[in-house]
Amino acid sequence: MRVTALNPEPAILLAALSDIPGHTGLDRIWKALPQARLVGGCVRDLLCGREVHDLDLASPFPPEDAQKRLEQAGAKVIPTGLEHGTITAVIDHHPYEITTLRRDVSTDGRHAVVAWTDDWKEDAQRRDFTINAMSLDQDGQLYDYFGGLDDLRAGHVRFVGQAAQRIEEDALRCLRFFRFFARYGQGEPDKGACQAIARLKDMMTRLSVERVAMELLKILSGPQLLRTLELMEETGSLAVLLPHHAPLSALKRLLACGDPSEPLHRLAVLYPPGGADGQGLAEIGAYLKLSNESRAVLAALAKPKPELAATLDDDGLRRVLFQQDRSILLLWSWLVQARELGRPDAGWDELRQRLEALEQPVFPLAGRDLIVLGVKPGPEMGQWLKKVQHWWLEQGCRPDAEACRDWLTGQLSPR
Questions:
Q1: What's the pLDDT tens digit per position in 147-174?
Q2: Residue limits of the tRNA nucleotidyltransferase/poly(A) polymerase RNA and SrmB- binding domain (predicted)?
């Protein structure tokens, strides 16, 4: 069941909650911590019918008391962040993060010193956006102190309280504003938020590169990506976070094609090979300290484009598939379509379907096959292997081992 109308009725919310994997562990948590509530992203996504990944809760019990109560109820408890009031209960292999209600004592612009409280509104007041400040109890009752439900309905991403104050408490909230706008935003962005971000954008230079990269990749996956990046450009944030990026017009062409929400090929459009000031994909991957796997993808996308065209037949498609990983070719197909057309196209869609359906070509010969035919190991063998592989590629990677041996025998016989 999905809550498509943002209906806060308890029965509807509880029915939707029952569809979520891991929801059964909530009964044990609520038995141990009856005043606990679901909080943050899971409440937000439950309300608007989006997939819920993690069930996070808050509780008025101090973390040590909450841990004791949960252990007495048979849950495995991991003290993941006691200094911040956070523990993780593991029930039937599902983790549930439970945090004691908090208030900020002091902050350095990124991290806060907190104290425990039993005041739900005080805890909600320290959250970033109104759509993230709602909570839900075990009876399905929604608690919304700052108009988060109305904002969610309107697609309005709005800070709790004064935007500038919230950013000064934690500069990461600038990036989170853009991330949530990319995912939930509709219409005009919050004026006060944009003004505060434009004024305080340099605070983002204090953030760790790893955290910036994490947020940027989520932004690049958002459905409202183009408007979000334009907004980041207008506030000066994009130049702070992604220096030397290409004009957004190239990304607009990619999005117009209806591309999947894959952040790496969207990043590749912003940093094409030979980008401005030498800032290409390899450099931006290193700058953002992306994972080795992500950097490998960017390195593949930084190479000269493969011979892809919507009119390519299956023989040609097998040739490029032999030379390049299928997942990379699929990303390339969107990049080439964006450059050549910049719009949806049935031919490119069909090409991707055929690419998905083709078996991975495997060259059927190895050195031992040539030894049987009388070719001695060494440079000559390598040359003959290249020749027969070249012939095999010309045939669309279709000849089997026997056909390759027959062709090679014919080439060797005049010697």
A1: 999 999 999 999 999 999 999 999 999 9
A2: 193-246
Q: How far is residue 113's CA from residue 399's CA, in Å, rounded to a whole number?
A: 68
pLDDT, position 3: 44
Estimate to the nearest angstrom the gap between the alpha carbon of 259 and the chain centroid: 14
In sequence order, which residues have a C-beta less than 8 Å from that of residue 286 and are 6 or more positions away? 295
The candidate with the shortest Cα–Cα distance to 272, out of 244, 291, 253, is 244
Q: Is residue 293 part of a domain?
A: no
**Torsion, CA 222, CA 227, CA 231, CA 233, rounded to 10:** 90
Residue type (1 letter), 381: M
Q: Could you give the dihedral angle defined by the CA atoms of residues 132, 70, 95 and 209, in that order, rounded to the nearest 10 degrees?
A: 60
Which one-letter amino acid corresponds to residue 18?
S
pLDDT, tens digit, 9 for 90 and up, residues 400-413 = 999 999 999 998 87
Task: Give yes or no: residues 2 and 134 share one domain.
Answer: yes
Q: What are phi and psi of 189, to 5 degrees?
A: -70, 165
Q: Note down the domain range covering 326.
A: 302-357
Local confidence band at 274 (pLDDT 50, 70, 90 cut-offs):
low
Cβ neighbours of residue 82 under 8 Å, at least 6 residues apart? 63, 64
Apex 349 CA angle, 345 and 350, nearest 5: 115
Predicted confidence band at 110 (pLDDT cuts at 50, 70, 90)? low
Q: Give the pairing of strands 76-81 and 56-59.
A: unpaired
Q: Please state the three-class secondary structure of 193-211 as a single string.
A: HHHHHHHHHHHHHHCCHHH
Compute the distance between CA of residue 156 and CA of residue 159 in angstroms, rounded to an integer. 10
End residue of a domain, out of 333, 357, 381? 357
